[in-house]
Amino acid sequence: MTKAVIPAAGLGTRFLPATKAMPKEMLPVVDKPAIQYVVEEAVASGLDDILMIIGRNKNALANHFDRVTELEMALAQKGDHARLQRVNHPNALADIHFVRQGDPKGLGHAVLRARKHVGGESFAVLLGDDLIDERDELLTTMIEQSETRGATVIALMEVEAESIHLYGCAAVESTDDPHVVKVTGLVEKPSVADAPSNLAIIGRYVLRPEIFDVLETTPPGKGGEIQLTDALQVLAADDAIAGGVYGVVFSGRRYDTGDRLDYIKAIVQLALTRDDLGPELEPWIQALALKLPGRADAVRGDR
């Protein structure tokens, strides 16, 4: 498996007005755009042929992964080789291609736009709102499980019951591996009462090419969009189509950059892991916490 698909056609309305002229995928997380973290994850998992599904006004994505000769020359003339290396890094990561989604008909429709590029191969789908910490294993495990079981594999994560309505949710059965489950059903953003579990689908999928035939006949679901979850439900209900659906239950570090508050948390958490930022940032955060109204006593108590 060498191909990854990254849907990046969303409007980013939760971050307006910042995303009025800038794609949400280009919002910086510390000093890299969110989309670069996703591409780096795909490449680290052996996927170096990447297709981005984009919409209008997303030219900044292509520009970021292209050469910028004027900037490179300016940095080289200054002898700033460290920044020059960081500037060149994105355009050397992988073979990156772009295709327009056209009509905003949902995630399932975006994945379907990848059919000609993917062909008859299995492939991964990575959503740009979910960043997986590079120190934690997920996508490589999913690829291995897909190849071993000959099946579609999705990433699952336990969430609080009251939050399950924000996600697709999986009904599951145990397997011979405590970290892998057999998916027997999927529901898109169920109510707490209707949720079959507290296992939420997060933004990583390893799909077999049979998904395209299913998506072709999947009617619009919630929001009038073609939902990838609905197509996966078809595969989960009939193992004969493409070997069924399995889930890898992820318990590592995940950063949600699709929500404003979680986006801020992601920046702080990732900055704290950096050798060049963490040592100065951590004591500043601790000092700030002591100054917060109603928080000082609690912080002192924790100590």
TrEMBL record:
Instruction: For this UniProt record, give its keywords in alphabetical order, as a comma-separated list.
Output: Nucleotidyltransferase, Transferase
Could you state a single Gene Ontology molecular function term?
UTP:glucose-1-phosphate uridylyltransferase activity
| Record-given protein name | UTP--glucose-1-phosphate uridylyltransferase
Catalysed reaction equations from the record: alpha-D-glucose 1-phosphate + UTP + H(+) = UDP-alpha-D-glucose + diphosphate
Occurrences of domain Nucleotidyl transferase (ranges): 3-269
| Pfam families with a match to the protein in the record | NTP_transferase
Q: Which organism is it from?
A: Agromyces albus
Q: Name one GO biological process term.
A: UDP-alpha-D-glucose metabolic process
